[in-house]
Amino acid sequence: MSAIETIFRDTRAPGDCSPAALNMNLLAGIAHDVRGPLTIICGLAKTLSELLPEPSAEQAEILARLQSEALQTGALLNCLLDLLRMTHAAPIVKQEWQSMEEVIGTAVRIGARYLEGFQLTIDIADGFPLLRFDPILIERVLVNLLENAAKYTPSGSRISIVATFDAKEAYVIVQDDGPGLPHGWEHQQFKAFRRGPATGGITGTGLGLAICQSMLAVSGGRFFVCRSALGGAGLALALPVETPPVVDLET
Questions:
Q1: Which helix (H) or strand (E) holds 7?
Q2: 8 A C-beta contact, residue 131 and residue 100
Q3: Start and end of every Histidine kinase domain (predicted)?
Q4: Of 40, 52, 57, 189, which sees the most CB atoms within 10 A?
Q5: What pLDDT is stored for residue 4 in this prediction?
Q6: Could you write out the DSSP letters of every residue in 164-218?
């Protein structure tokens, strides 16, 4: 079904027909239509690389560029849809009691390809409490922060994840020893499509941190810039500390 067919189908259906909802439906349909060709392009590029047993340097570069551009376009589509879901729809949030240590471990495994060549350390405070949040959303926030740290610091740099807490909030800080955030951009980073002036040739959409902030907001948390103990950039998420329910093991 094409994007146009999708939007007409959805406008005839009962439910929310507000402009924001219609825009969401249209963009979702377009994203669906574009994802198919992107997947085919990636697959064909991989197949071509396998059919050429000894590609020339130029051929290998073209194939790698083809795959990279298709993947980046797909990532841009996903970022746009995530931002729209967080800001123009009623996102479904599954708040459950979670172990932050497990969620951090999952995020590190998902982001492993970004972290190759970096020195990663994880420091979780003793007695770190169980927290109530949607693990999928928080995993995505942490993966985004790890990707950002790896993207904007030289290979071999130090990246650390620090989890600590006080009586009211629990914090997870992702920090590095890179160049840090440009002066005056501490809050600009959270605006959609805003990128720092010193990004150079590094590709990006300018959506990642805006999406993270929205995900934290719907989770009842907050997102902020903090001082990095390593001297570079420090980005932190905070979630409220609550008392977990008492489980009666005898019943």
A1: helix 3-12
A2: yes
A3: 29-243
A4: 189
A5: 32
A6: EE-SSEEEEEEEESSS-PPTT-TTGGGSTT---TT-TT----S-HHHHHHHHHHH
Task: List Cα–Cα distances, 110 to 105, 117, 146, 166, in angstroms.
Answer: 9, 16, 10, 28
- Exposure of 38 by Cβ count < 10 A (0-12 exposed, 13-18 middle, 19+ buried)? middle
Among residues 82, 81, 3, 5, the alpha carbon closest in space to that of 37 is found at 3
* pTM score: 0.64
pLDDT of residue 45: 80
What is the pLDDT, as a whole number, of residue 182? 64
Distance CA 75, CA 195 (A): 16
Ranges of residues in the chain whose predicted pLDDT is under 50: 1-14, 188, 190, 192-193, 195, 199, 203-205
DSSP code at position 59: H
The strand pairing partners of 165, in sequence order, are 170
Spatial CB neighbours of 249, under 8 Å, sequence gap ≥ 6: none
> What residues contact 70, with CB distance under 8 A and at least 6 apart?
38, 41, 42, 45
Distances (CA, A) of 107 to 116, 173, 188: 14, 13, 25
With vertex at residue 203, the alpha carbon angle to CA 146 and CA 218, rounded to the nearest 5 degrees, is 50
pLDDT digits (tens, 9 = 90+) for 14-64: 455 565 566 656 666 766 677 778 778 878 887 887 888 788 888 888 887
